Amino acid sequence: MALPPSLRTSITPPELELVASEQLVEIIPLVSMERTAFISGAYGPLRPPTKCKVPLWMASNLKLKKKCHLVPPPWLEVDFLQEKLTQETTSPSFSEMPFRFAEIAKILLDVASDDLPNHERIRTLLKDIREARQAKSREGLSKLDHNELLLHNLCAMEINEIRPFFVRGMGVLTQLTRESANNNNNNNMDQTL
User: Fold this and answer.
1) DSSP conformation class of 147
2) Which of 62, 86, 166, 181 could staple 68 via S-S, CB 3.0–4.6 A?
3) What is the mean pLDDT of residues 103-131?
4) pTM > 0.70: yes or no
5) pLDDT tens digit string along 20-54?
6) DSSP calls for 56-99
7) 85 Cβ contact partners less than 8 Å away, ≥ 6 residues apart
8) 49 domain residue, yes or no
9) CA distance 123 to 56
10) What is the pLDDT of residues 147-170, one digit of tens each?
11) CA–CA separation, 94 and 164 (whole Å)
């Protein structure tokens, strides 16, 4: 969702992708490598063709150097995404998706689309799911209550997108509630005098 500069108070999508790049993904290494220590932890050893879990940033780096194949997560398959799209379009609530699905999917589609069967269909399904979820978010924000907002199963990107609207809207609603309470108190005082 494109926001005007005045509302860009949240983390940017590339920053969210950076955070998501710490998620572990499965790879099939094409080269051998001993266990290697990084600031975030030690990963490996890599022994082809044995699958190994590494952070997404490492998998992306290895993939760009043609030193591994990425194994798509189970939620990044056409059947799973088609089922989620059906749930999104038929149910008023958000379907349960991994918290950082949008960021991880974008990275995997950008870096390793050749490792994803039907990657164009996956891209289309993700776009449709995202649009359906954005429509639900907008509907949820239109029902904003000054006490709470219940939107279960939102992902990191969606929370980040609605945060500026939510914070500003809650501020306005709180101010209106206070003004209404003050007006009621003033009316009660006038009646007692």
Assistant:
1) S
2) 62
3) 96
4) yes
5) 999 999 999 999 999 999 988 999 999 999 999 99
6) HHHHHHHHHTT-EEEEPPGGGSHHHHHHHHHHHHH-SSPPP--T
7) 125, 128, 129, 132
8) no
9) 19
10) 665 668 888 888 888 777 666 766
11) 20
List phi, psi (to 5°) of 29.
-70, 150
Name residues whose C-beta falls within 8 Å of residue 59's C-beta, 6 or more positions apart in sequence.
25, 27, 68, 70, 112
The number of domains in the chain is 1
Look at residues 19, 84, 11 and name the one whose alpha carbon lies nearest to residue 55: 19
In the block, which residue shows the tokens 């997108």? 161
Q: How far apart (Å, rounded) are the C-alpha atoms in residues 186 and 122?
A: 59
Q: Could you tell me how many residues make up the chain?
A: 193
Whether 66 is in a domain gets the answer no
Binned at pLDDT 50, 70 and 90, residue 179 comes out as: confident
The alpha carbon of 101 is separated from its chain's Cα centroid by a whole number of angstroms, namely 5
Amino acid 139: pLDDT: 80
Nearest to 33 by CA among 58, 3, 8: 58
CATH of the domain at 142: 1.20.58.1020
Q: Which domain does 120 fall in, by range?
A: 10-20+73-186
- pLDDT tops 90 at residue 90: yes
Token pair listed for 122: 């996956």
Q: Is residue 32 part of a domain?
A: no
